[in-house]
Design brief:
Number of strands: 7
Radius of gyration: 17 Å
Shape: globular
Mean pLDDT: 94
CATH superfamily of the largest domain: NAD(P)-binding Rossmann-like Domain
Largest sheet: 7 strands, parallel
Number of domains: 2
CATH topology of the largest domain: Rossmann fold
Strand order of the largest sheet: 3-2-1-4-5-6-7
Order of helices and strands: EHEHEHEHEHEHHHE
Strand content: 5-15%
Structural class: alpha/beta
CATH class of the largest domain: Alpha Beta
Low-confidence stretches: none
Distance between the termini: 30 Å
Helix content: 40-55%
Length: about 260
């Protein structure tokens, strides 16, 4: 199936590793010109070389103004923008009662603020595209409450709400969708499992077993399985999908 991504111009945030890197890889394989991004110039450039990306941009999205700068550079270096994939950091392990105002500020700066800034900054370029897409990666915490990732629930829910609002505001020119990610075999998952194990006085292996027990498909996902869904949403075949949240989680969310 031709996804209609040939010669599309895409910025994939957080794409030097993990899910973002695999998304960038698939878009490039489908013929898109992709700007990859990392906090580190060295990691961004390494990803550009390894993936064959068109541009590498370093920006620490927790810094005010960095998300706007990232988008503006991508637009300039790609000669426009057709696809924005928003992929930010998380809020850390812990319940709401155990967090303080400094944690709140860090989580806001890591998740909601850069998402809002990047989407707003991309609009002038996206509205000039004949196939404009914004795809926002969130997490299970937007559809199912979690005491493990309480601040993620708070701010990623805000991210999902912002995406839904933009889908209405920018239709029919720009399609905006949310991808709710489950547990995937990435460095981020391993770091979370270690942090949760440390908090509970158990082992990462025990945490992993509990994760797998809660996934009907009996395993964590592969990054390419998530990337394929994002590529579909980025392409021409998704032309009647906007304002929705798509779960890619192996069936782990309990609900309709």
């Amino acid at each position: 199936m031709d996804l209609g991504l040939q010669n599309r111009r895409a910025l994939v945030m957080g794409s030097s590793s993990g899910l973002g890197r695999q998304i960038a890889r698939v878009l490039i394989e489908e013929g898109s010109a992709v700007a990859v991004h990392s906090r580190s110039e060295e990691r961004a450039e390494a990803a550009r070389v390894a993936l064959g990306a068109s541009s590498a941009i370093a920006a620490d999205l927790t810094e005010e103004g960095a998300a706007e700068h990232l988008v503006q550079r991508a637009v300039a270096e790609l000669g426009g923008l057709d696809v924005l994939v928003v992929n930010t950091g998380g809020g850390g392990v812990g319940s709401l009662a155990t967090k303080g105002s400094a944690d709140d500020d860090r989580a806001y700066a890591a998740m909601l603020r850069p998402t809002l800034a990047a989407m707003r900054a991309a609009i002038p370029a996206l509205v000039k595209s004949d196939q404009a897409r914004i795809i926002v990666l969130t997490a299970r915490s937007v559809v199912e409450a979690s005491t493990d990732l309480a601040l993620s629930s708070v701010f990623r829910s805000g991210v999902a709400a912002a995406a839904r609002s933009l889908a209405l505001e920018l239709a029919p020119t720009v399609l905006v969708n949310v991808v709710v990610t489950g547990q995937f075999e990435t460095g981020a998952l391993q770091r979370f499992e270690q942090a949760k194990a440390d908090l509970e006085g158990t082992t990462p292996e025990d945490v992993r077993r509990k994760h797998i027990d809660g996934i009907p498909l009996g395993r964590v996902g592969r990054a390419e399985e998530l990337a394929d869904v994002v590529a579909f949403l980025a392409g021409s075949r998704s032309s009647f999908i906007t304002g929705t949240s798509i779960r890619v989680d192996g069936g782990s969310v309990i609900g309709f």
